[in-house]
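Table S2 (text version). Query chain:
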Amino acid sequence: LAIGSLLGCSGAAVAAALGQRIGHVAPIIVSLLGQIIVCLALFDQDHWMAYVLAILFFNFFWNLILPYLMGMIAERDNVDGQAVVLIPAAQFAGSALGPVLTGWFAGDENYRVASLVAIGLFMLCLTVLTPLFITLRKRVKEIPNTDVYVARSN
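Corresponding structure-token output:
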């Protein structure tokens, strides 16, 4: 897991290299789809190497999506940064609740159910975010040289 976390940093490096050149939407959707594929690959695997590879790719996609999600939140934070400062708290809450919920769903080593729950949650994210992205794109379409998200004016 430690090696997977370290190698997962390459996702953040890719995000840093891409910056805003392709906007927020494509990296977020690619990351969510990548995480779904990784969870599907884990669904029926018992081999340790498959697990290691899945962790590597999952961490890559997780570290790719985080900078774009945090940037989106920062750009849309209308209360002087109060939402941004809650990001670490939300991450730690997820780190605490994730294993508990996984254990609850997994029960007696039935990790397939945990994979299905993860897939369902990633699909829920796609279902919620896609219409939001389309709506935001329509709102800023008439503004030249902008990404999907436009920083609020002060």
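Notes on Table S2: The chain has five helices and no strands. The helical segments are 2-18, 25-43, 48-76, 87-106, 111-140.
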